[in-house]
Amino acid sequence: MKPLLWDRPPACRRKTSILAALVLTLAGCARHNALPVYGHVPAFVLSSQTGAVFDSKTLDGKIWVADFFFTTCMGPCPRMSAEMHWVQKQIGDLPDVRLVSFTVDPQQDTPPVLAAYAQRFRAEPGRWFLLTGSSATLNTLDRDAFKMGNVDGTFVHSTLFALVDRRGFIRGYYHTEEGESLDPLIAAIRRLSGTGLRPVSRVHDLPAVNAVLNAAAAVLLVWGFALIRRGRKRTHRNVMLAAFTVSTLFLICYIIYHAQAGVVRFERTGPIRTVYLTILFTHTLLAAAVPPLAIVTLSRGLRARFDRHRAIARWTLPIWLYVSVTGVVVYWMLYRM
Ligand code: HEM
Predict the structure, then answer these.
(1) What is the DSSP-derived secondary structure letter of residue 212?
(2) Ordered domains of the chain (ranges, CATH)
(3) Which residues have CB under 6 Å of ligand 1?
(4) Average pLDDT over all residues of the chain
(5) What's the gap in Å between 146 CA and the centre of ligand 1?
(6) Is the predicted pLDDT of residue 64 greater than 60, yes or no?
(7) Secondary structure (3-state) at 103
(8) CB-CB contact of 176 with 86 (8 Å)
(9) Are 111 and 48 in contact, with CB atoms under 8 Å apart?
(10) Which residues pair with 69 in a beta bridge?
(11) Which residue has the least CA distance to atom 20 on ligand 1?
């Protein structure tokens, strides 16, 4: 009879459970992220219908629905605002959900005008914010972040509602036209809300996991090199195999993250952007060379072809090390700086 997992020898059991944990972790990463990520909303400061300063920090940790409108609109805006009121009713039991309507006509839509409009559509104070302020800020949000129109005097804006998660990532766009159901929006809000911060954050925690894996690979590579310089061949072999495993894990997590999050852009401008793009370019170019170089180097080492192993390893090691270290730098510049 085939032995059960726990009847097998400890080494085999350990390998099987590591593999099982890995598969479960990766499955966990993928399972929770059916809502795609369309981009990130930058920080902003505007004014609300009460005339108070509205800092986007107010929305940190909240799930929110955004739309763009203007109060004198004779077209779709009144219908959209009526639908926003409907959404307000549906999410009455969810204290962490906010509604945010940005005007595309800040000249006309002053706080008192917005206050009258808010009253007309029975916007709940503290729940539904109607925002106005600098055209430049509103334009950055409308055109660049949400990609839902322009605040340039043309009054052109999308009739979509956008859903933003607790960390400011745009997770969906929903049609509001006549005959379109907003049930999918409510379902998505409940999903984000019911799951709280944890599952949503999982995919967004992956860049940090990736940075740790890159840093670990760099440490292992330096250690492996130090070992062979001291003639410790067996430990060198094991440490280099560990570096290869860690980098393979990184590659898997990297693919999972970018399949979910898409391309994450570096928002800053000026010289720092040039520095970032230079590091990113060299990092990406050399990263493509690492898998074939590492595989050939490993295989020559494992087949005891040490002369040839040494010849290629002198290229593999510095390139791999550069890619691992710049991987951490890119992470830090993109997500932490
Ligand atoms: C891809 C992973 C590996 C890298 C990056 C790597 C890197 C290196 C480097 C840079 C050297 C030359 C050190 C020097 O110039 O003093 C070297 C030598 C050596 N490596 Fe590796 N190594 C790897 C995997 C392995 C494996 C799996 C083995 C298996 C036994 C191995 C066995 C050796 C041996 C025996 C030497 C000494 C060769 C000699 O001096 O002729 N290496 N390795």
Answers:
(1) H
(2) 39-195 (3.40.30.10), 198-336 (1.20.120.80)
(3) 225, 228-229, 233, 236-237, 240-241, 244, 294, 297-298, 301-302, 306, 309-310, 313-314, 316-317
(4) 85
(5) 51
(6) yes
(7) strand
(8) no
(9) yes
(10) 103
(11) 301
The closest of 224, 263, 264 to 247, measured between CA atoms, is 224
Cα radius of gyration rounded to whole Å, the chain: 26
Ramachandran region of residue 131, left (φ > 0), alpha (ψ -120 to 50) or beta? Answer: beta
Counting every residue, how long is the chain?
Answer: 337
Could you give the angle at which helices 197-229 and 233-261 cross, rounded to 10 degrees? 150
Q: pLDDT digits over 99-108, tens only?
A: 999 999 999 9
pTM for this entry = 0.54
Please, which contacts does 243-251 make with residues 24 or more away whose CB atoms are closer than 8 Å?
Answer: 243/217, 243/320, 244/294, 244/298, 246/213, 246/216, 246/217, 246/220, 247/213, 247/217, 247/290, 247/294, 247/320, 247/324, 249/22, 249/213, 250/210, 250/213, 250/214, 250/217, 250/327, 251/291
- Report the nearest-CA residue for atom 38 of ligand 1: 306
User: What span, in angstroms and rounded, lies between the C-alpha atoms of 102 and 91?
Assistant: 20
Separation CA 150–CA 266 (nearest Å): 22
